# Entry
Amino acid sequence: MMTDGMVEPRDHPTNQGTGDDDTRDQVRFLTCGSVDDGKSTLPGRLLYETGTVYDDQVDAARAESKAYGTQGEAVDLALLVDGLQAEREQGITIDVAYRYFSTPRRRFIAADTPGHEHYTRNMATGASNSEVAVILIDARKGVLTQTRRHSYIVSLFGLRHVILAVNKMDLVGYDAETFAAIETEYRDFARTIGLNSVHCVPVSALTGANVFAPSTEMDWYRGPTLMHLLETIEVAEDATTRPFRFPVQWVNRPHQDFRGFAGTIVSGTVSLAESLIAVPSGRQSRVRRILGPSGDLETARAGQAVSLVLEDEIDVSRGDILAPVDAPVSVTDQFAAHMIWMDDKPMLPERTYGIRFATQSAVAQVTDLTHRVDVNTLEKEAAKTLAMNEVGYCKIAVDRDFAFDSFKDNPGTGAFILIDRMSHATVGAGVIDFSLRRADNLSWHDMKIDKAVRAADNGQKPTMLWFTGLSGAGKSTIADRLEQKLHERGRRTYLLDGDNVRLGLNKDLGFTDQDRVENIRRVAEVAKLMLDAGLITLVSFISPFRAERDMARALVEDDEFFEIFVDTPLEVCEARDPKGLYKKARAGTLKNFTGIDSDYEEPENPEIRLEGGAQSVEAMVDRIIDHLERAGRI
# Structure
C-alpha cells in the first residue's frame, strides 16, 4: 500500500501468470478524462498493486521522479505508464499506452489514453478496442468539456459500461458533498447520450483510497471499490452470440491442392459442413475444413484466427466477408454514419478519402454533413465541415459495393476509418448507422450508343486535358490556343473554363475550401460526361488541391487523363494580374485567394509541366500536341 504518496516495498506480488491454460476471462478497459485528472497515475497504481511491475522498475521510476515526477520525493506512479520522453517532460499522456495485468479473478488490458484535446483521436482509438470505460474527473474541477467529449465518444463506440472515478478526493478533504454534486451532474449528462450503466466511485489514485481497499477517510461511501467493479462488471454481450462474420484477410494458396481463406472471426461461431455465403459476390459453399494454429478444428468462435477451406472453388478475395447463408451481411455503396474527425485539416464534403472497414478498402466521399454535435449541449448544429475532434452525423458514398452490418448490430463489421490518400494518415473514424436505400434503386444504364461508338464517329480518342496552376498562370490562354489548333486538325473538343463554369453551373459556390472541392467535383463529373460523348475535353481550373485532381483522374481510364501543370512563378502571375485579383487579395478585400491566403498544392507527377513565363504560348501548345501525338491520343 501507499502512505502519503510513498511506495512501500512489496514482498508478495499478486499478479498471476497468464499462460494458455489460464481460464480467467479477460476485460479490456480504457482510462480517459481531461488533462491532469490522473489517468496515468491510476493505471500505475493498478500495475503496482497487482505486482505487474518489478522492483527494479519501481526503483527506476523513483529515480526518474526526481527529474520528471510531480510528487516531490515520492514515486510518481504515472511514470510506470507514460513511456514517451515527451510525455515525461510535459507531464501529459500523448500516445495510447496498453498495459496488461491480472488479479486472481480476471485478466485485464488497460488502455491509458490522452486527456489533451489535441490527442482526442488517440483516445478514440483506445475506445474502439475497449469494453469498459474508466472516466476520471478531478474532484476540484468537476465535469469539463473534455469529460463530455470523451463520454460522447465512449457512447459513440458502443461501450455499455462506464466507471466514473472522481479522483483526487484527498485534495478536497474527502468531501462527500463534492462527490455527490459531480455524480449528479455527470449522471444527468450520461443519460442524454445513452450511457445508462454508470458506476461512480470516489478515489484517490495517489493514496490508493477506494482503488483496491475501502477508504477510512470516505466511510460515507458504501459502494464497491474501483477494482471490485472491474473484477465483477458484466462486460458487453459476448461476440459469439452474434451471427458469424469472417472478413477474409488473405487467400492462402501454398500449392494447387490447397486454397484456404485466412482471417480472424469477428463474431459468431462456425462449424464443419456449415453453409456460408461470400459477400458481396453472393456465391455459396460449405465449410470443408477449419484450420487453427495447432491443426484441424470442428468448430471455431469469435476471436480465433483460422483458415477456412470450402467445398467449392468459389471466387473469394481479401475484403470479402463470409457469413451464414441464413444471416448474411448487407451490401451498399452509401450509408449514414456518426463520425469523429481526427485531422488538423478540416473534413471537406465531396473530397475523396480512402476508407477501411474490416479488411475491405475503397475510396469514399462525405456527400453530406447532416449536422455537427455540440458535445456540451448535445445540440445538433448546421455545419459545412468538421474540425479536428468534432463529431458529426454524415452521409458517405463509396466507389463500390461493400459488405457491412450496422454498428449496433455488430461492431466488428460496422465501424470504419477514413484515410488521407496522400499522407495515408487516419483522419476520421466512425460507425455505420444504416444503408441509404436510394443506393439500392440506382444503377448505371448502359446505352447502345456508347463512348466507343461516339469516339469512332469522331475519329479520335476521348481525352481529358486538365490544366492546373495559379491564377494568371496562363491556363486559359494556353487551353484556348490548343483548342484552336486541335480544331484546325478536325478534332472535336470542348473547353471548360473556371470563370465560365462559375457564371453558370457553379454560381452558387464561393471560394472556401469546401466550395472549391465541390466546384472541382462538379466540373470533373461534367468532363467525364463529355468524354463519354467522345470529345477531347480541356479543363482549365486552378484546382488547388491534389486530392480533387486525383479524384478527377480516378473518374476516367488511366490513359485518358493528362494533368498539365502551368508552372508560372507567383511573382509573374501577380505582375500580370489580368483581373486585378492579386491587388485585392493583398489589400485584404478578397479572401481565400489561392497563392496569397489559400494554399496551392503543386502536382507531384504531372504528365506535362509547362514553364509559364519562360516560354511562348505557341511553344507550350506545340509541346502539348507533341506529347499527345507520342501518346497516341491524336
About this structure: The chain has a mean pLDDT of 85. The domain at 330-438 is CATH 2.40.30.10 (Elongation Factor Tu (Ef-tu); domain 3).
